[in-house]
Amino acid sequence: MRPRIVLFGDSLTERSFGSGGWGAALADNYSRKADVVVRGYGGYNTRWALFLLHQMFPLTSLTPPVATTIFFGANDAALFGRTCERQHVPIEEYKENLRKMVHHLKQCSPAMLVVLITPPPVDEEGRMAYARSLYGEKAVKNPERTNEVTGDYAKHCVELAKELGIPSINLWSKMQEIVGWQKLLSDGLHLKPEGNAVVHQEVLRVFNEAGLFASEMPYDFPHHSAIDWKNPDKAFQQQCLGSFSL
């Protein structure tokens, strides 16, 4: 059985297997080495995501994921009193919810690589333009998210990772290092292929730094070059998939 890498998050994860998505690119990196499983739930915040933990990551599992990314915060950071206030989660609760997620995953497997990913920056003008494209003059005059507030949530995410001794990706900061970073977003919030490429690059970097090199993982079954066409049984007599651990 191949190792599993689980991508857990909101719509930024749910859409990651679309064309140009970061999850699809990661699955390609680990093709025939590990199963990259997307568990993204559009619109979810960390409060709602906690209800999924025991179903998705049962403590009794004999085959927990070798690695899991946790990518929440874009909805938690929705402003209270604006159009998406139902998704808002206070910042301290957001941090504690992430802590609970990490704690649960480490209970499943202390050796599991857990990576926290901050929400991306918010292009407020892009959000407003998107709202106008949908609702015209009826569009609200103030954005439901701001880049400044989202940055505060990103800061708490990174602080928690340092506190727990696990890796994190500060996507909020990383994307803003790029001149014209707004072009990485399709509607001021969600990722274009270029934005997905940033996430993919960062996730792969963190995985490699943790020793999760795809190149060093065994194939699930023999490479075709290892199969003797006159005596194929020989290549399949050996256990092709060894156990992989960090």
Report on this model:
This protein is α/β, with parallel strands linked by helices. Helix content is 39%, strand content 10%. It contains ten helices and five strands, in the order E-H-H-E-H-H-E-H-E-H-H-E-H-H-H. Strands 2-1-3-4-5 form a five-stranded parallel sheet, with helices on both faces. Helix 5 links the parallel strand 3 and strand 4. Helix 2 packs across helix 9 and helix 5 runs parallel beside helix 7. The two termini are 16 Å apart. The model has no long low-confidence stretch (mean pLDDT 92).
A few lines on this structure:
With 246 residues, this protein is an alpha/beta fold. It has ten helices and five strands.
What descriptors fit this protein?
246 residues, alpha/beta, 10 helices, 39% helix
What low-confidence regions span 5 or more consecutive residues with pLDDT below 50?
Answer: none
**C-alpha geometry:** globular
* SSE succession: EHHEHHEHEHHEHHH
**How would a crystallographer describe the biggest sheet?**
5 strands, parallel
Q: Kindly, what is the distance between the CA atoms of the first and last residues, rounded to a whole number of angstroms?
A: 16 Å
Number of helices: 10
Mean pLDDT level: 92
> What is the number of beta strands?
5
